[in-house]
């Protein structure tokens, strides 16, 4: 039983590490969908991304 829990813990940590590496989003990225305009808007920085898919990359303007 303890071995099974250890394997489960390692699997969860590996999943979290892999999903973090495939995304550039930060805690400040808060995407909200505007269906009427068919776009996504970041609440934190105001970046706009057209389309139906939620953005997986931070579009925060540099500077």
Topology diagram in text:
Blueprint: H1 2-21, E1 31-34, E2 39-42, E3 48-50
Antiparallel strand pairs: 1-2, 2-3
Characterization of the model:
This protein is α+β, with helices and mostly antiparallel strands and 63 residues long. It has one helix spanning 2-21, and strands at residues 31-34, 39-42, 48-50. It has a three-stranded antiparallel β-sheet, with no helix packed on it. A hairpin with a 4-residue loop joins strand 1 and strand 2. It starts with a helix and ends in a 13-residue tail after the last strand. The model has no long low-confidence stretch (mean pLDDT 82).
Give a quick set of tags describing it:
63 residues; alpha+beta; 17% strand
Q: Largest sheet, if any? A: 3 strands, antiparallel
**Main sheet: strand order:** 1-2-3
Task: Name the helicity range.
Answer: 25-40%
Mean pLDDT: 82
Tell me, briefly, the overall form: elongated
Give the helices and strands as they follow along the chain.
HEEE
Total helical elements: 1
Distance between the termini: 52 Å
Helix-and-strand structural type: alpha+beta
Instruction: Give the tally of β-strands.
Output: 3
User: Regions with pLDDT < 50 over 5+ consecutive residues?
Assistant: none
Radius of gyration: 17 Å
Q: Which oligomerization state do the chains in this entry correspond to?
A: single chain
Strand content: 15-25%
